[in-house]
Amino acid sequence: MTLLVTGAAGFIGANFVLDWLASSQEPIINLDKLTYAGNLETLSSLQGDARHVFVQGDIGDAELVSRLLAEHQPRAVLNFAAESHVDRSIHGPVDFIETNIVGTFRLLESVRGYWSALPESRKSAFRFLHVSTDEVYGSLAKDDPAFAETHRYEPNSPYSASKAASDHLVRAWHHTYGLPVLTTNCSNNYGPYHFPEKLIPLMIVNALAGKPLPVYGDGMQIRDWLYVKDHCSAIRRVLEAGRLGETYNVGGWNEKPNIEIVKTVCALLDELRPRADGQPYAQQISYVTDRPGHDRRYAIDAHKIEAELGWKPAETFETGIRKTVQWYLANPQWVSNVQSGAYRDWVQKQYQAS
Ligand code: NAD
Ligand code: DAU
After folding, report:
1. Which of the residues 32, 41, 83, 135 is marked catalytic?
2. Is 318 among the catalytic positions?
3. How many Cβ atoms from other residues are within 10 Å of residue 105's Cβ?
4. For the purposes of burial, counting CB atoms within 10 Å of the CB of 333, is it exposed (0-12), middle (13-18) or buried (19 or more)?
5. Cα angle: 276, vertex 277, 282; to 5 degrees
6. Residue 86 belongs to what domain range?
7. pLDDT at residue 61 tops 50
8. pLDDT in tens, 328-344
């Protein structure tokens, strides 16, 4: 039994691999292109562990993916690989179209070729799990009900439009070809190994560096935050027991305005690593120009995954954010290697030399 996991050198994929191998002997083939967001240093504790096989490559490389499938005969493919940062998608959408849409299409075709040739018993047990986002549903007004799985797709950014397109492809490959797919649509994650271009890690590292804490617009946009390990446990549960062709929304019932998130991070840093001058970190908050087309509110209705699969998050926002701030304080080397770019040498040092 083996899993092929794509994009597993990124934030959520790497957390998934670490959690999986902490409690399972089932090996993981990690296919990751190592874009700027891929960081093998996150997985350095698995060095020499035969259960983790890293392959640098693109999900859109049909020859490579078909070869990996034939060689390792996985029982499931989990697709985390994507361009994931909304601001980058606004500045340059092309990579989002290439990976999130065309890449997912090519991956689906490679997987379909492999799956259709499997013997019947393995064919019916096979799963393709697609990791997606709540952003495909668009933006909610203040009093709208949270996104259920039946909410219409209304993506607003190049990123969310590209993820929405990938969800549609996955759905169609099930409907038309019978590929046994599962899709998860999760809200905003936070936790260890989060690349410091996203709100929470950016605020932590900027605060510690004495830099401004840039809050877009009025800071009253609402996101629904989930600790990354709870997202990973949801994916494990959907893989294990999700109904074929279904989508499952994943969220922690933790809606918060951005400014409250930033103030919470500041207050935790005041407690755990006070500024040398004794002043509060909140003094560094700086309101800046808003993100174009900025979605006002996301909120996930997680009743389906809770009722059908019995999944519940283990962390509250209070416990999860404290763990996250503590993790960044305890891992300055990981942060400085990301900031200096040294993390990109890791693959050279660890893999190509051997
Ligand atoms: P990330 O940007 O941290 O990591 C993405 C990984 O994919 C990187 O390691 C990158 O090298 C790899 N990758 C990119 N293009 C590739 C390609 N063509 N072929 C192979 N690998 C490629 O992203 P993340 O935050 O870990 O998100 C993982 C998945 O979860 C994405 O699909 C994202 O849309 C989804 N998601 C993220 C969040 C969140 O809050 N971060 C929430 C819901 C869903
Ligand atoms: O909702 C799930 C999505 O969450 C995922 O699909 C995406 O991959 C992930 O990046 C995330 O998207 P967001 O755009 O919500 O995350 P980000 O951390 O970039 O921003 C969170 C909120 O904070 C958003 O309202 C924009 C705001 N923000 C962000 C940054 C980086 C700021 O105010 N200042 C900032 O500097």
Report:
1. 135
2. no
3. 18
4. exposed
5. 95
6. 3-189+226-253+295-315+342-350
7. yes
8. 999 999 999 999 888 88
pLDDT per residue over 25-49, tens digit each?
999 999 999 999 999 999 999 999 9
Computed over every residue of the chain, the mean pLDDT equals 97
The reply to whether 309 falls in a domain is yes
pTM of the full structure = 0.98
272 within a domain of the structure (yes/no): no
- Number of independent structural domains in the chain: 1
Tell whether 262 is covered by a domain: no
Q: Is 32 designated active site?
A: no
CA-closest residue to ligand 2 atom 13: 86
Q: Helix (H, G, I), strand (E, B), or coil: what is residue 56?
A: strand
Q: Is 58 one of the annotated active-site residues of the chain?
A: no
Q: Which residues does 21 contact at the CB level (< 8 Å), separation at least 6?
A: 28, 46, 49, 51, 52
